[in-house]
Amino acid sequence: MTAMVLRALRFGSVAEAYERFRPGYPAELAELVLAYAGRPVRTVLEIGAGTGKATRRFARPGVAVTATDPDAAMLAELRKHVPADVRTVQAAFEDLPLGARHDLVLAAAALHWTAPERRWSRMADLVEPGGVFANCGAPIQLADPAVEAAVRAARAPFLDSDEIPSPDGTPPDHAMQWPGTELQRSEWFHDVRQSVLPHRFTMTAGDYVGYLSTVSAYLELPEQPRQQVYEQILRALPESVDITADLTVHLARRR
Fold it and tell me: Cα separation of 41 and 101, whole Å?
């Protein structure tokens, strides 16, 4: 089991908080992906489905959805929120059986947990020729720079950063973000597109700290400093905070 998979398995300890505090995905996500497909999508495989926040956008009549995740606790929470006919498989991406190919393979805030070695050749083995790979992610950011600075100062004694850097080193201001950069270099995929779906909302201070309790950087901390940093951040926050969570979507077609 890779170090990244082991780190991803920490989410199961906070599965209920993950479902409660992490924002869902807009309906426009499925509309964008299905329009890009340009043909009926009857089978969907989701990688790292978590508690099913993206799964439920694609689970609809006539579509066979398989949701996979390495963590049994996350899948148990997922089953509470998706239709009964969604199939679940407990496995990391690297351990998924090959053979069956799908019209759509989806990763929502999960692809960075996969091993880079053979990532795209394995992905290609899971997608039908002409089928679609879709990836989406939405960094949760405090909209007010002053509030962000206060949180950063409160966090500093415990964590330098709570962000996950781009897996291939692509800078945040680059026109094409990861994994689009890797997809553009891949021999198995083409017609790579990047879209951004705006998403803004407000959270209470308590709910924002609840969200932080599902972030891997905090879950890596020992119990005592983890609770201390939550308390420090809560004291630094106003009663409610404005959030920017614009969803970046990457689409590519299997050659």
Answer: 12
Contact yes or no for 48/8 (Cβ under 8 A): yes
Tokens of 195: 């879209």
CATH number, domain at 79?
3.40.50.150
Digit-coded pLDDT (tens) for 165-211:
999 999 999 999 999 999 999 999 999 999 999 999 999 999 999 99
Q: What is the DSSP letter of 214?
A: T
Domain span including residue 84: 3-140+164-202+245-254
Q: Under a CB-based contact definition with an 8 Å cutoff, are residues 123 and 237 in contact?
A: no
Residue-wise pLDDT tens digits, 1-34: 555 556 666 899 999 999 999 999 999 999 999 9
Q: Which of 166, 163, 162 has the alpha carbon at shortest distance from 135?
A: 166
210 lies in some domain? no
Asked, for residue 66, whether it belongs to a domain, the answer is yes
* β partners of residue 105: 45, 133
**Which amino acid, residue 217?**
A
pTM of the model: 0.95
8 A C-beta contact, residue 218 and residue 229: yes
Give me the residue label for tokens 């170090």. 3
User: How many domains are contained in the chain?
Assistant: 1
Only one residue has tokens 């939550």, namely 230
